[in-house]
Amino acid sequence: MDNIDICIAGLGNVGSALVSLIEKNADYIKTKTNFNINILGISAKNKNKKRNFNIDTYTWVDEPSNLLSIAHKKPDILIELIGYEKDISYDLVKSALLNNINVVTGNKAMLAKHGEELFKIAETCNVVLLFEAAVAGGIPIIKTIKNNIFLNKIKKISGILNGTTNYILTTMELENKSFEEVLKDAKEKGFTSDHESELDVGGYDAAHKLTLLSTLAYGAEINFDLNEVEGIEDITIEDINFVKQLGFRIKLISESYIVDNKIYCSTKPKLISIDKPMANTNGALNAINIQTDQLDNLYLEGQGAGGVPTASSVLSDVYEIINKGDYKSLGFNSSNLIKFEKFDSSNIECKFYLRIRAKDQPGVLSKITAYFNDAGVSIEKILQIPDNKTDSTPIVITTHKIKTCELLSSVKKISNLNFILKKISLIPIEY
Asked: In this structure, which CATH number among 3.60.110.10, 3.30.360.10, 3.40.190.10, 3.30.870.10 belongs to the domain 141-304+337-345?
């Protein structure tokens, strides 16, 4: 039986879960692969942190770069799970590839920024850079696109790609708590951390993942700047309750598609009709819908975060390397990536939800609707809900389809009226 030598950089939730899985399933892995996975060395920021395995069992390395050669032995695979430490991760992965070491990573931020360079290095050095763990945790979305539907023409990708934001929105609804309260709860439960939460709730984590999926789906150059990103920080419990009355739920939706040879990549909150599967993807679950020319809609749902599901994805990449044939990191040559221009979304037509907080005085509603009528905005529904606790009133409006730029123009004018008290909440509706 042959050995496959690995080193692990980063021992957070995922890295620690990975070591435990390898220990627990060692015999099963040997039976399935005919290989013994041997951990040559491990590295993390804090050696003294309590973990769910005995670190004294393994060779500890303080400097991650020293994992590339332990006792003059080079690992077959470097597993990079450092994550937030951007420069360290990039330098380590690049060095490993240049030293002809295969790499498995869960670092979507690094790949969204440096992926194109790193994939080309991998090809030049005849190794692979695999990243199933970088997107959607335990859902095998990368291999599904890269292997299972490779010859399908993908028309659109859309989904919930961040478990933390989905947990927050779900808990706000179920427990009637504010965004701030649930975010604190999410940190305490380990769904996010102080330094990760900005990436999560700001939509950037999901956008990083969408960048990678779009590269695989359309052969697009890896360019994070093509994304439009909006987070959930401004979603209030008012919004959650109002949209529920209208038959919707709010979800942070990432989507991409090609229009007129340009690419549209967007991550932003959307209203989803309550009878749709994605509206009922709750907690920390992720969901992805892929539209193709052959399969119409392929819907995948599962655990999108957490140590064990993500560690499972890492192991699947390790197995792919063990079982290697003639394959590429992306499933195709990175030299074939297509440079797309960014699609101007201002002309996209859709329905919108607006929540307006205004002074409770006569004539407010008529003035607002007059502005919309003058701008050609067709109103579908209006909810005006008295607020007995303050001298203000929330006004909820849903529109018929309208170009985004036209609605934004009228909203800007209404925002300047002296009876408007807060920033107007504006969320697209997807039925």
From this structure: 3.30.360.10
pLDDT score of 188: 85
Q: For 45-76, write each residue's pLDDT tens digit.
A: 989 888 988 999 999 999 999 999 987 899 99
pLDDT at 86: 61
CB 316 within 8 A of CB 33: no
Classify 2-134 by CATH class: alpha beta
Q: What is the DSSP letter of 21?
A: H
**Residue 296: both structure tokens together:** 């119409």
Residue 264, helix vs strand vs coil? strand
Surface-to-core class of residue 342, CB atoms within 10 Å of its CB (0-12 exposed, 13-18 middle, 19+ buried): middle
Q: Hey, where are the domains in the chain?
A: 2-134, 141-304+337-345, 347-430
User: What residues of the chain score a pLDDT lower than 50?
Assistant: none
Tell me what pLDDT residue 209 has: 96
The pLDDT value recorded for residue 151 is 87
DSSP string for residues in 331-351: SS-GGG-B-PEEP-GGG-EEE
Q: Give pLDDT, residue 137.
A: 83
225: Cβ contacts below 8 Å, ≥ 6 apart: 342
Report the amino acid identity of residue 159.
G
Q: How far is CA 159 from CA 140, 178, 210, 339, in A?
A: 14, 24, 9, 24
Distances (CA, A) of 83 to 20, 36, 237: 19, 27, 32
Write phi, then psi, for 127 (nearest 5 degrees): -130, 180
Return the axis-axis angle of helices 13-24 and 307-322, rounded to nearest 10°.
60
CATH architecture of 347-430: 2-Layer Sandwich (3.30)
**Per-residue model confidence (pLDDT) at position 64:** 94
What is the β-pairing status of strands 227-229 and 154-160?
unpaired
pLDDT given for residue 1 in this prediction: 56
